[in-house]
What we know:
The complex is a heterodimer.
Chain A: E1 10-13, H1 14-27, E2 29-36, E3 39-44, E4 70-77, E5 86-89, E6 96-101, H2 103-117, H3 123-130, E7 132-137, E8 161-165, E9 170-175, H4 178-187, E10 191-192, H5 195-210, H6 223-228, H7 234-240, H8 248-252, E11 259-265, E12 271-278, H9 299-317, H10 328-332, H11 339-354
Parallel strand pairs in A: 2-6, 6-7, 7-8
Antiparallel strand pairs in A: 1-9, 1-10, 2-3, 4-5, 4-12, 8-9, 11-12
Helix pairs in contact in A: 7-9
Chain B: E1 15-24, E2 29-34, E3 62-67, E4 71-76, E5 88-92, H1 96-102, E6 109-116, E7 129-135, H2 139-151, E8 159-165, H3 174-182, E9 186-191, E10 201-202, E11 219-224, H4 227-239, E12 247-250, E13 266-267, E14 270-271, H5 272-275, E15 278-280
Parallel strand pairs in B: 7-8, 7-11, 8-9, 9-10, 11-12
Antiparallel strand pairs in B: 1-2, 1-6, 2-5, 3-4, 3-6, 12-15, 13-14
Amino acid sequence: MNETSPIPPRFLTKRELKSLLGALIREYRAYGPVDSDGVPAFSALTSSAELRFDLSPTHLSAREFLLPSKETLLKFDLTESGPGVVITPVVEAQPQVIIGLKPCDINGMALMDSVMAAGVRDVNYLKRRAATIIVGVECLPDETCFCASLGTERAESGFDLFVHLLPTRGVLVRIGTEAGAKILKKYAWGRKAVKAEIVKLEEHYELKLGAFKARLNALPEELPGVLAASDESPVWQSIGSICTGCGACNHVCPTCYCFDVSDELSSDLKSAERLRVWDGCTLDDFTLVAGGHNFRKSRAERLRHRFNRKFNYGSERFDSLFCVGCGRCSRTCLVDINITEVTNAIIKEVKESRG
Amino acid sequence: MASKSTSIESPYLPVPVTIESVESISATERLFRLSNGLASSRSKVSVKGGKGGAPVYSPGQFFMVGLPGYGEAPISVCAPYEPGFGIELCIRLAGNLTGALHRLGPGDTLWLRGPYGTGFDTEGFKGLDIIFIAGGIGIAPMRSLLLAVLKERKSFGALRLLYGAKSPEEVLFTEETEQWQEAGLETEVIVDKGSKGWKGRVGLVTDLMGPLKPTPGSTRAVVIGPPVMYRFVVAKLKRMGLSETDIQLSLERRMKCGVGKCGHCQINSSYVCQDGPVYGLGDLKGMGEAFK
Ligand SMILES: Cc1cc2nc3c(=O)[nH]c(=O)nc-3n(C[C@H](O)[C@H](O)[C@H](O)COP(=O)(O)OP(=O)(O)OC[C@H]3O[C@@H](n4cnc5c(N)ncnc54)[C@H](O)[C@@H]3O)c2cc1C
Ligand code: SF4
Ligand code: SF4
Ligand code: FES
């Protein structure tokens, strides 16, 4: 992921792109968006023909490939007891490539990287991340996407290669890292893009920016302040009263990373594992402690926390918002709690109260 | 505590420590004295700071204490660091892991990683009067601070401990409190509900605060207790004229990693496992979730 002095974009024919993707799928464990019974989903790939770059963001984000939903942190050999127990940390990272990551997800992954690298380094995540090649693909929004409201509709870094499908016959490939350049040189170097082709990129962004149906009615830099002023808002009560606490909004989010840790004993009691599994701040027992006290007692408080984590708290800790506008949480919520609608209601209230 | 000798440096890798003694100090609490340094182990683990060296920690900090197969839990140090001596932990029987820990005895092994979190700035207390207010198991972390302060008794002003427990049976360190008293710590204990033979006071810990006449600026108040306690105690301290810089507290939250990743301990934008558990009252400004 070393940033290099930028190599100008390359032009590849559709056929060259196909052979590049085919080679990656052959050489690596590769994942990419496919149509899974009508649902866009990341899937292990066997052929580039399975890939679909024209779909809405996948149901689940690509988090699974870097922070698996269930992961062994430690293995315990309990053959001997006491200090005789042998503990082996498990840090697995196999080379893999994720194809078709959209700008929102690339920006989301960069946030995840900064969390996992801050302070005590989470080597399990970071090793996997370092072994991962990212091939981004440009896209157009569906009716729920709102990345343009957060400035995450473009990916400037965080990828090895980034593919722009041109309206004409070929594609433009931007090179983000040395590893990306190497791969491109090896499998499909194409030719240097000409000015007329690079101009097409800006034309695409103009088209993209005009295509959003969902928007936030505040600037990204206004959001932390708005959320900070919303503690007592009745909006939290109103969405809290319909939320089922299912945790799906956490589950699908590319920038949610909370986890639970617990041990599992084997049935013969000779070994055990310390596992981490995804957890979610909207689940009822997330802040429950022994003795029965729950620090966020109501769904309203839990949703307020989630929205603050996305639009406020991260700005202090990581100097960034933690929502990338993919719209997954809105698409998945069974009771139609929609992140842009809720946030706009909060924005309206706070702006009105400020006069 | 990074592992030096392993090829993989997992932040989740604990080290084994031998239990030297276990003392049952109430029906539900046990005091574990650990031996100094690490147990020799077949796992490739070592602690930063040297061969068999015990970790150095401050009062108020905690370790993630665990047993293979049972999980881990945050447990505060119960005594201050002293070269040549092991860690002391006071553990309440609360569930699965703590239940398994309570079945251990001298010579057994437990596993820990840490220390984590912020500790108390004992140096910063020097020359000041200190009011310690503890509730329930909060006396365990408080003890690490009390003992650190009493070790250098002359460097501090008037010292007073107000300690509330649910019942006389749940009052911890009863014999020790007498020693603390002799060492120059004025101690008052109160229980929610008395029982036969209890000659002490009955009521809430706030009831002990009436006679306090703290001098703002030259007094520090330290509060550790169950969630319900903070709001009332802090309000009362403020009414007595203490300011935000005069009040320090230690907060409890659910914790699963101790290293700022799992998200469980978050209060507004603060991670209790890293920015806490010890906070100055001023640090909690604007954090509406702190006293929930
Ligand atoms: C900073 C800090 C310092 C502490 N210091 C001490 C100390 O010095 N001494 C002491 O005795 N205790 C201390 N505690 C509390 C101690 O960590 C808990 O009592 C301990 O986690 C209980 O673990 P357990 O496995 O025995 O309990 P269990 O009840 O089995 O709980 C295991 C985990 O699951 C959670 N949990 C509990 N019930 C449920 C439920 N119904 N559903 C889902 N999850 C649940 C708990 O919060 C815990 O994290 C401290 C806590 C913190 C945060
Ligand atoms: S997906 Fe909807 S119902 Fe489920 S926890 Fe999130 S907001 Fe609540
Ligand atoms: S909060 Fe919702 S819209 Fe924002 S990044 Fe997460 S899933 Fe996407
Ligand atoms: S305990 Fe995991 S983030 Fe604090």
